[in-house]
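job 3f2a | input accepted
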Amino acid sequence: MSSRQQEKERRRQERLAREQAEARAAGRRKRLQMVVGGALASLLLAGAIVGIVVGVSGGDDGPRRSGGDGTAAVQLPAQQITDVREAAEAAGCELRTVAYAGAGHEDRQFKPSDYNSNPPTSGTHTPDWYEDGIYEPGDTSELGKLVHSLEHGRINIQYAPGTSPETVAQLEALYDELQGGYHLLLYENATDMEFAVAATAWTQLLGCPRMNDKVFDAIRTFRNRYIDKGPERVP
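job 3f2a | predicted structure (235 res):
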């Protein structure tokens, strides 16, 4: 083979070697990208699953206490009325003192017909109770525990099923406004009450057939008048 042919063959072999090396390097890069991409996808999927689980469970088994959900951005009408009766009348709400119906304890399921008002304000109830907080719909199904919370001097703010998310957000903002939810419960009513929004204390009822801006003053003044007035003081 002539020198010229040898040189040509050498260059061809070098070119083939470079192409093979480049192909191997490209293959390694592709495999690395697949591994990294798969790892990232797994991390994203795991994060999504955790987010879903936390979102569904609320992060724990109890109610939310207050804040942390954008309620600070919700603007509520400033308080105009400080007298509970004037505030209730201005909002078109019913303010009623309900006859005392007892305070016994029974370990059973209670229903609305067991009480002398809807929502109830006193009467026989379960030995345990719901803690203060904001509850998701369906999380306060035991009526006897709600009545027991009233015996401890709590104010129970409740809204009818089907209430708009905007109104619920406003009620949550109101909850936060009232000393960060001190001795308050906020939840969706499950007794088929006739009111759009109601607040209850021990033997006291504020029932509002329609939600309007004046209802906030009605709840504010009701809370100020009747909080910690139950026969049992529990911190």
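job 3f2a | The chain has two domains: 1-61, 71-226.
job 3f2a | closed
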